Amino acid sequence: MPLDILFRECYYIHIGEGDQQRPIPVIDDCCYDLVFFKEAAGTFYYGSEVQEVPINSKVFTIHQVRPPYKIKAKDSLTFFTIKLQPWANAHFFSSLHGSGVVDINGLNDQWGGFYQQVFELDNTDDQFALAERFMEEMQFSLTPSMELVREICEYVYKNEGKVTVNQLSEHFNRSRQYLGKVFKKEVMYPLKKFIITVRILDLVKYKSKNPDVSLTQLSYDYGYFDQPHFINDFKKVCGVKPLQFFNNLPEFMLRHQ
């Protein structure tokens, strides 16, 4: 089974003590992350009223919080992160309790072992090779409902989020209620939220590559025919209005281009 059936990507980030220390924006793309945090010392900020919680976990994920999100290191910050495909979310994290930054080190003995090994390596090529072996060990066969949700997600990705639940119902010949139920079970997000998220993130990526395109034109291109609807959806995903976001385009978002 190819690794990308279950895992979307992995990446390594290091910000040294001498580097400019400013919060790193986090965009919720409806894909859960296994975050291995070398220093296990930082702060997570979330919500429009800016709640903050300490991050003292070596291995964590972010669960059920409202954007915008930011992470700030205490001193240096070193992350190795493995991002799941959305249809694999529930397989790994359906038992999560609480919200915010959730320590997951005790959920799987392999995760603590990977944490110990990955930060002993100095070469990023070696780290990614270790991650590939680690992900191969975690592979499993998809259930029929996961296969269906995978097809739904891939259809939404292919269409850049420019689809409706009704269109999905017609395409997959299943009721809206059934699709919504099975999707929420496997992805742990509502189907409509996933569609909006894919659409907005695709729009953000397009705008970051084509800065001269106006937001008005872009919103029309992505199926919005009134600005309040577009701004509302954008805030649901990114936590701020479009102008505020693009006037200070997060450097962390650039890796998604």
UniProtKB/TrEMBL annotation:
- On whether Transcription regulation is a keyword of this UniProt record, the answer is yes
Do you know which SMART domains this protein is assigned to?
A: HTH_ARAC
- Pfam families attached here? HTH_18
What PROSITE patterns does UniProt report for this protein, alphabetically? HTH_ARAC_FAMILY_2
Gene3D superfamilies from the entry? Homeodomain-like (1.10.10.60)
- At the top level, the lineage of the source is Bacteria
- Kindly indicate whether the keyword Transcription regulation belongs to this entry: yes
Residue runs in coiled coils: none
Keywords, A to Z?
A: DNA-binding, Transcription, Transcription regulation
Read off the SUPFAM superfamilies from this record: Homeodomain-like
Boundaries of each HTH araC/xylS-type domain copy?
150-248
Task: Please state what the protein is called.
Answer: Helix-turn-helix transcriptional regulator
In its UniProt entry, the species of origin is given as [Muricauda] lutisoli
